[in-house]
Amino acid sequence: MKKVYINSIASISPQKTFDSSEFLNEIIIHEDQVVFAVEPVYKDYIPPAAARRMAKGIKMGVVASKMALREAGLEQVDAIITGTGMGCLRDSEKFLSGIIDNNEQFLTPTSFIQSTHNTVGGQIALELQCKGYNFTYVHGSNSFESALMDAKLQLELEEAENILIGGVDELADYTTKLNKIIHHIKDKKTSSHNLLDSKTKGAVFGEGANFFVLSNKKQATAYAEVVSVKIFNTLSESDVAETALSFLKENNLTVEAIDAIVLGRNGDVEFDGFYTKLSLSLFSNTPQICYKHLIGEFNTASPFGIWLASKILKTQNVPNVLKWNEKNTSSYNTILLYNQYRGENHSFIILKSC
Predict the structure, then answer these.
(1) What is the CATH number of the domain that holds 120?
(2) Closest to 268 measured CA to CA, from 339, 349, 177
(3) pTM of the predicted model, to two decimals?
(4) Whole domain around residue 9: which residue ranges?
């Protein structure tokens, strides 16, 4: 089967990541329970008249996709695959509020039309006039991983040559309030500086869009090879280390072969134990990297981990703000990524330099 390469990357997040020439050169310190994306100038990518009709999530997704395509030097792809946990939340809330406020009468359909989960993928296809395979996965915090597995299979089997994949989620007021009530969001404002050591329940929520062009042909712009992806709906804390070791063995790798591990630690004292099991046992001598203190937690936060792992493999540099321990290595060739959300939807991904 063909190998699968990440030929370009693009990220819009609560950090200034939309400039692909930089790698977290300037860190924004957040001091809140929710953190919002730092947005580029949308009129540079989307006509202002069109942008006004788009919700934030759609704009982030469309612009991030254009950035990824531009870096890959492509005007067209064979398929578009997106992942989203909550879809276009703002339009969903707007439509439902309209139903209540107008007593279920005199409703305009615009918000409903734009509230569906596949709106971002559809909008990107309209912009590109792409009539190929277009699919959106809504699998909670494994939504992006499902899109990645789909794209990887198609490329390995040569059913496509270039595939645009991405993950996007946005914050919305009412849903944020609900998450605060059920304590999925932290009760008090927490600084990025000490979020991962906060020892309190809940996470800081964020938003963003991360897009990648995957191909079975390596370009000069290539960042990494996607070696393997595996997801699990449920795992116990005691099984995480054994599962990780089994995953490595399936790919003929040892713990010592892993140059860094990227962990989805988010500062939730109830569920960070999954990461602690790995960091204190199998990977105690491996450089450990964390990122959710910079961008918050959301269903498609994990592709930001792929974005930064790709950057690390290409630049051979790890910004200090990402380091969870003091271990170092002379070069980064193989990186393991592990993520879970509230004890469910566990994912393991291996990336290699190419």
Answers:
(1) 3.40.47.10
(2) 339
(3) 0.95
(4) 5-215
